């Protein structure tokens, strides 16, 4: 999608701070980190919101979580613990409309979230 920031990361038009990449997934540091470790994991395929997933995307979503676990290990936060979050639409605070899994760690997380 030509006007999508995260598609520009995938195409290489803009370079994020990449921490992990494979054929299907890209992971990079959030520009406005909410925790000592804050990484966004995205599918290379453009999907606007969680509501737009199809049955064909089921494996791809699994790959986002596999990548999150790999990055957590790479970042050294896997044993202490971390949180993964995907916001959907306005009330959840979604601001970039290319789905992304937030990986947050390196500090204690509050529950329930605000
Ligand atoms: P969400 O609010 O769930 O849509 O999350 C979007 C996230 O993208 C926010 O945490 C932003 O800080 C992050 N973000 C926005 N622009 C960039 C950028 N250029 N590079 C890295 N992260 C970004
Ligand atoms: Zn996109």
UniProtKB/TrEMBL annotation:
It holds the Pfam family HIT. InterPro entries: Histidine_triad_CS, Histidine_triad_HIT, HIT-like, HIT-like_sf. The active site is at residue 100. Gene3D superfamilies: HIT-like (3.30.428.10). One of its GO terms (molecular function) is catalytic activity. A motif (Histidine triad motif) lies at residues 98-102. Residues 5-114 form the HIT domain. Transmembrane segments: none annotated. PANTHER family: HISTIDINE TRIAD HIT PROTEIN. This is Histidine triad nucleotide-binding protein. It comes from Candidatus Thiodiazotropha endoloripes.
């Amino acid at each position: 999608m030509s006007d999508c920031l995260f598609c520009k990361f995938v195409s290489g038009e803009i370079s994020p701070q990449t921490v992990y990449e494979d054929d299907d997934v890209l992971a990079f540091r959030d520009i406005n980190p909410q925790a000592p470790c804050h990484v966004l994991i995205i599918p290379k395929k453009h999907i606007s919101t969680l509501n737009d997933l199809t049955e064909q995307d089921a494996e791809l979503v699994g790959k986002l979580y596999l990548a999150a676990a790999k990055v957590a290990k790479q970042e050294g936060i896997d044993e202490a613990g971390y949180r993964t979050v995907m916001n959907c639409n306005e009330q959840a605070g979604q601001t970039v409309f290319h789905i992304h899994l937030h990986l947050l760690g390196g500090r204690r997380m509050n529950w329930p979230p605000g």
